[in-house]
Specification:
The protein contains four helices and five strands; from the N terminus they run αββαααβββ. With 140 residues, the protein is of the alpha+beta class. The chain has a domain of 95 residues: Beta-Lactamase. Strands 2-1-5-4-3 form a five-stranded antiparallel beta sheet, with helices on both faces. A hairpin with a 7-residue loop joins strand 3 and strand 4. The radius of gyration is 14 Å and the shape is globular.
Amino acid sequence: MTGSFVRALFDEAPPGTFAKGYVFIASPDLTEAETDPDAGYWHCDIAGEDRLTWSAKVYELFGLPTGSPIVREQIVALYEECSREALQRVRKYALSRAYGFILDAAIEPAASEARWIRILAVPILAERRIGALHGLKRKL
């Protein structure tokens, strides 16, 4: 995954990267996502009522069994209040401007101790509108 555009942004994004408007016009290929030992890949279908798709690593970060049903509202409730507010604020701004973002957030996983994670989100455009957010999450 080291050659992945998303991964390169996650590891090496200089300040202001997303002010330049990096976006995808198609969903990135996740076939290698399960082999990445450090980061979990996620996808949120904005047009599909915020339907989430996660790699096994993201399930692990949130203390949930791989493949279990995930509902965005229930997952957002696992964020500590300050981080939840920051996530909602930056997500709303990113969706209104078609920008990506990087956010460090505190979560209280379902079956493990509280921890900090880093979230990278990049919009995916469909017909000049954001159809989805896609990115990485990893434990800090």
